[in-house]
Amino acid sequence: MKYVLFYAPAEDVMEKAPLHFPAHQSRIGQFHDRGDLLMVGTFGDPVNQGSMAIFPTREAAEDFVAGDPFVLEGVVRSYEIREWDEVLS
C-alpha cells in the first residue's frame, strides 16, 4: 500500500508559489532523502490540475503536509490523501 497526496492549487498560486517554492523544495528533498517521499510532480496544467506525491506511509504524507510551506502559506487551497494499492512497479 502507498499513499497519494493530491494538492489543489489556490487561485493565486502563480503569485504565491515562487515565494514559497525554495522552502517547499527543501522539504521535498528532506523527505525524499530519508525515504519518506517516493515521487512528486505536477500535472500537465499545474495551475488548474495541481500536483501529487506518493509516500510509503500515511504518517509520512500527513507529516509532510503538516509542515509544508505550500499548505501553511495558502499556495494550495486543499489537499487529499488517498490509499493506493500499487499493482505493478
UniProtKB/TrEMBL annotation:
Family matches, as Gene3D superfamilies: Dimeric alpha+beta barrel
Organism name: Actinoplanes auranticolor
Domain YCII-related: 1-84
Family statement drawn from the similarity comment of this UniProt entry: Belongs to the YciI family.
Protein name per its UniProtKB record: YCII-related domain-containing protein
Pfam families: YCII
